[in-house]
Amino acid sequence: MLRVVYLTFKITLSISFSSASRTYLNEVCIQSNSERLMELSFMESTATDNMAESKSQKNITANPNITGAEILIRCLNEENVKFVFGYPGGAVLHIYDEIYKQNGFKHILVRHEQAAVHAADAFSRATGEVGVAIVTSGPGATNAVTGIATAYMDSIPLVVISGQVPVPAIGMDAFQEVDMVGITRPCVKHNFLVKDVKDIAATMKKAFYIAASGRPGPVVVDIPKDITAHLTEYIYPKTLEMRSYNPVLKGHSGQIKKAVKLLLEAKRPMIYTGGGLVLGDASPELVKLARALNYPVTNTLMGLGGYPATDKQFVGMLGMHGSYEANMAMQNCDVLIAVGARFDDRVIGNPGNFQTKDRTIIHIDVDPSSISKRVKVDVPIVGHVQSVLREMNEILALENKQNNIADWWKQIDEWRTVKSMVYQQSTEFIKPQYVIEKLWEVTKGNAYVTTDVGQHQMWAAQYYKFDQPRRWINSGGLGTMGVGLPYAMGCQFADKNAQVACVTGEGSIQMNIQELSTCAQYGLPIKVILLNNRYLGMVRQWQEFFYENRYSESYMDSLPDFVKLAESYGHIGMQITNPADVESALVKAFSPELKDRFVFMDFITDQSENVFPMIPNGAGLAEMILGKEQKLVDNHTREED
Amino acid sequence: MKHIISLLMENEAGALSRVAGLFSARAYNIESLTVAPTEDSTLSRMTIVTSGSDEIIEQIIKQLNKLIDVVKVLDLNDGKFIERELMLVKVKATNTYREEMKRMCDIFRGRIIDVADGSFTIELTGSGNKLDAFIESLDKSAILETVRTGASGIGRGDRILKV
Asked: Closest chain A residue to B59 measured between Cα atoms?
């Protein structure tokens, strides 16, 4: 034993003297004017020495010491990571050197760190796996923050690895230094600063576990550069136990029984499901429950696809731009079951108004803090939505009871006659809703549809009927403009043969337009559906409704020629100005001959179109503004909040 | 209503800032916060004095539990508990004040722990209310400096917060 150690030491010494340190001697000499720099370059030289050492050791010991960077790569392989989205830089150079040497995963080089995180986020939304991104320290890290916050608000599991300046340089205002752990603390599920190479493997294990379990969310692992060069033995923990983190997964049986009983006794029941249902992969269980009960179902913006939109029990999306029937049913039901949804302000509007009606609320959520946060809940059930719904289905099957709610359906069908999702077709201008309807027809409802944020997002949500979960990919919580294109990239990597449509606006698309280059590099056959109304549409709509048509800074001048722009990246560009050409253009873009091509479709749409129905900010669910095409039923006057 | 919340958390770098950050991010009140390692050096014990409606306190407890580093949370106000805070007060102790300060200190069961020409430093332990009362009863112009630790709390009898 002793002899082996001695041998290793000797070999190490000889190698580090002979090759590696020679190149660094020059560097030390150049930088010797400052002690600080000496120290830094010394750290770099030890890094290279260490690497040489690791190679020499491999032949000698069974479990050799390897660098932190190599450990990191092995951890990612251990977690079966298929794609890593990232952008290299100084602090992650050791890691990128190891990426170069491996072939366990494919690294996707984006054009901006924000897009790396969004793409990893979409990959996760589409597949259910943990998304992974790597960024460098300082500006790389801060660029990633919007992506991390976006994932956090929608509870998307991510592991974001950020480089950090070497440990001795932390706090010295070093080049490209930023307190990443501090900056991201409010918008991550958890974060780590790894200060010892021995901690990398265990931290990565924890990061993946925390990101994916319980209520999912992004986890940041900040790794100083010197740590990625230090050496240690690689041991990836097989199991993990954390005394401080044990998410409850199984719902309380008594509560579940109580919930089923309440549901069976309801006169005006309503099923309301959100993003949690999709994240919990509980769509089949929900469909089974809803069909067995024959109750109406609504989805939130985040929950679209959780229940098939073409099913007769589906009453449409609810909320600020939800259907009339969904909002009225939500407001007037007597028993409401919320599954993986959180009663947020865009969904129920004013909670005070919502609570003026008496109803019994059952709430299933994996996160206890989501329950009774905005609305008092009567039957809370903390647990994984899939397991809870399964248990409910089992109880229902045993009970074998039918609850007749014909009167309630009659009322809902009456609300449906308002036809809140109708628009005035035009032969002169392209109506954005029409484009989405045709997109749905042409893609047969099977495409992955990503959107940015604004009017186009709402029209896509209203007019594209999602029959499957994980096909509707958008930023619901944070409302991040610029996600559309990187989201489409993530979806295309998740499913290379799938049809991926990025519905966007001319404001949003320009927030991450640089990713056209990434799409060219990897040959991604995404179809961009740009609904170009030359306005920041949603801002303009609010200014029209609430600011007496003062369109402050919501008109965008000097738009690029999107066709030429797309072509300059080697993509296909199309501009469509005539409503009669909409369908044929979409058919062409999605045709087999353009199957492998990125197509950018610039639809010049009606500038004056607004999103209806609309519940003004702070108003109640029944206080909808309907479009002029819909006949008003009982639209109350709005109370200012 | 005022609540005293006790929690055990992993003694990790940054754990304190996660709790402090949570309170500021969600706009919860925070009156005082004390923290130190326990007999088990891997754990820190924190006492937070806060106030809010029942709904807000419920959310605070849930949000604290949601922090990955937090092991256990207990709202001391759910049962019987003891609250103690330490205060050091430096007061004027010139001729006229010298006797009076000694007397006041005795009445409140404080201790004079430093004597200088013109001042005493008094150490006083008790509930926040008691410390407030002591300050109230002193002549304001006699107070040179005060420092308080913030409350520490512990459940009575069988109420034990332990991993």
From this structure: A369
On the question of a common fold for A65-233 and A432-604, the answer reads yes
Which among A176, A255, A411, A521 is annotated as catalytic? Answer: A176
Among A12-16, A149-153, A227-231, the range scoring the smallest mean pLDDT is A12-16
* pLDDT value of residue A628: 75
* CATH classification code of B82-152: 3.30.70.1150
Residues of chain B found within 8 Å of residue A189, distances taken between Cβ atoms: 68
- Check residue A47 and give its pLDDT: 47
Using CA coordinates, name the residue in chain A closest to B25. Answer: A186
Provide the pLDDT for residue A638. Answer: 40
CATH superfamily of B2-78: ACT domain (3.30.70.260)
Domains of chain A by residue range: 2-58, 65-233, 253-416, 432-604
Q: What CATH class has A65-233?
A: alpha beta
Residue in chain B lying closest to A209 (CA): B68
pLDDT digits (tens, 9 = 90+) for A469-480: 999 999 999 999
- The number of beta carbons lying within 10 Å of the beta carbon of residue A431 is 20
Query: Does A205 contact B at CB distance below 8 Å?
Result: no
pLDDT for residue A627: 84
What is the distance between the alpha carbons of residues B17 and A103, in angstroms, rounded to a whole number?
39
Q: Does B66 touch chain A (CB under 8 A)?
A: yes
Residue type, A180: M
Cβ-Cβ pairs closer than 8 A, A with B, add up to 37
Test the B interface: residue of A244, A343, A374 with most B CBs within 10 Å: A244
Check residue A5 and give its pLDDT.
39
Catalytic (active site) residue A105: no
Q: Output the pLDDT for position A15.
A: 37
Identified catalytic residue from A55, A58, A106, A175: A175
Q: Count of residues for chain A?
A: 641
Q: Does A367 touch chain B (CB under 8 A)?
A: yes
Q: How close B100 comes to chain A (CA, Å)? A: 50
Residue B55 with chain A: CB contacts under 8 Å: 372, 376
Residues 91-150 of B with CB under 8 A from A: none
The predicted pLDDT at position A401 comes to: 85
Give the span between the Cα atoms of A35 and A31, in whole angstroms.
8
DSSP label of A383: S
Distance separating alpha carbons of residues A399 and A396, to the nearest angstrom: 5
d(CA B157, CA B159): 6
Q: What percent of chain A has pLDDT over 70?
A: 88
Task: Match domain A432-604 to its CATH number in 3.40.50.970, 3.30.930.10, 3.40.640.10, 3.40.1550.10.
Answer: 3.40.50.970
- The CATH classification number of A253-416 equals 3.40.50.1220
Q: What is the DSSP string of A482-501?
A: T-HHHHHHHHHHH-TTS-EE
Distance CA A50, CA A329 (A): 67
Report pLDDT for B13.
Answer: 87
Nearest chain A alpha carbon to B23: A186
Q: How far apart are CA A499 and CA A443, in angstroms?
A: 7
The beta-strand segments (E) located in A81-123 are: 83-86, 106-109
**pLDDT value, residue A488:** 98
Q: What are A484-525's pLDDT values in tens digits? A: 999 999 999 999 999 999 999 999 999 999 999 999 999 999
Q: What is the pLDDT of residue A630?
A: 64
Instruction: Check residue B95 and give its pLDDT.
Output: 85
At residue A43, does pLDDT exceed 60? no
Q: Using the structure block, give the residue that is written with the tokens 């170069």.
A: A100
Residue A173 pLDDT more than 90? yes
Read off the DSSP letter of residue A605: B
Annotated domain spans of chain B: 2-78, 82-152
Instruction: Write down the mean pLDDT value for chain A.
Output: 90
Confidence at A274, pLDDT banded by 50, 70, 90: very high
H/E stretch holding A13 reads helix A2-15
The yes-or-no answer on residue A538 being catalytic is: yes
